[in-house]
Design a protein that fits this description.
By secondary structure, the chain is an alpha+beta fold. The chain is built from nine helices and ten strands. A hairpin with a 2-residue loop joins strand 5 and strand 6.
């Protein structure tokens, strides 16, 4: 891999970061179940789950369809580049010649989702469906959390984070920008191996973008997402930060991220939990090193 191609990839990385990372509020809120809250507080640990086990698999398909629709209208692209990218996105291409960037499928993505909304009804509703009575949100100090994952890699894993994009116009703008940059580089490259690497790298960016694009109907969630990208998972026999949880008989891989108590600013019960009965929660928090009085939801109950 020559310096010219490598520098180009670094430039694209920086541009992607500018699109994704925007100023966060002082607190990022992680909405979760009572059982998960107990586990997080006791273990001082957050779990980043394998993207293949997301509750809503339509997320990935949304971006895939968006990219294919854009490609259908981009006849100005180099014909070979256009055909190869279309094939990669449509059929999840395979190659044995990739020297620098793993082909789609050769890396794993682990996700933890937060929100900048401190008291959002649509998020509470997720934890009150099926006769469940409630959930909680944990308010993490944004600055301290960013410092925790500030290094470029966490035990060999790259970290990507930012606000979810809900506006289709902005999503389309970013996809077209990436396509333009890679197409220009592709047309000015004579070496076939380098052209293949460029194609696969572009497809890799599309994979990454799919984790930060959502339909506008979800915009009330105001999601802020952190993603660990593991390029080495096929080479590492045992990752000390990786474990499995079992849900409905399915083994779900996840990455563990340890933290200290001072990173938590608040705990808020859902509006369906009787706030007057939170004394037990206060005891639990105090016994686990958190001198926090739970916040009360401002959403009125309607029975």
């Amino acid at each position: 891999m020559n310096d010219d191609i490598r520098d180009f990839f670094i430039l694209i990385d920086e541009i992607m970061a500018k699109y994704l990372v925007s100023t966060t509020k002082k607190t990022l809120y992680h909405y979760t179940s009572p059982e998960a809250l107990k586990n997080i507080i006791e273990k001082k640990q957050l779990w980043f789950s394998d993207v293949h086990y997301l509750n809503d698999k339509s997320e990935i398909e949304y971006t895939r369809k968006l990219i294919l629709d854009i490609l259908a209208n981009r006849k100005d692209l180099d014909p070979d580049f256009h055909a190869n990218i279309d094939s990669c996105i449509r059929f999840n291409c395979n190659s044995k010649k990739v020297l620098y960037y793993p082909r789609p499928g050769s890396q794993k993505y682990y996700i933890a989702s937060f929100s900048t909304a401190p008291d959002e009804l649509s998020l509470w509703n997720y934890y009150t469906k099926n006769d469940k009575k409630g959930g909680y949100n944990i308010g993490f100090n944004a600055e301290k959390f960013m410092n925790l994952i500030a290094t470029e890699r966490y035990n060999g894993k790259k970290i990507i984070f930012g606000k979810i994009m809900y506006i289709k116009r902005r999503q389309t703008q970013l996809i077209n920008f990436i396509l333009d940059k890679f197409n220009e580089k592709y047309t000015n490259t004579k070496d076939d191996d380098k052209k293949e690497i460029l194609t696969l790298r572009c497809a890799g960016f599309m994979n990454t973008m799919s984790l930060f694009f959502k339909d506008s109907s979800f915009s009330a969630e105001k999601e802020y997402r952190f993603v660990f990208v593991d390029y080495r998972y096929k080479k590492v026999k045992k990752d000390i930060n990786k474990d499995y949880r079992i849900l409905n008989g399915i083994f779900i891989p996840y990455i563990k991220l340890d933290f200290t108590s001072d990173i938590i600013d608040s705990i808020t019960p859902s509006p369906l939990i009787d706030y007057k009965q939170c004394s037990g929660l206060c005891e639990f928090l105090k016994e686990n090193g958190l001198n926090i009085i739970p916040s009360k939801s401002s959403i009125p109950l309607r029975y």
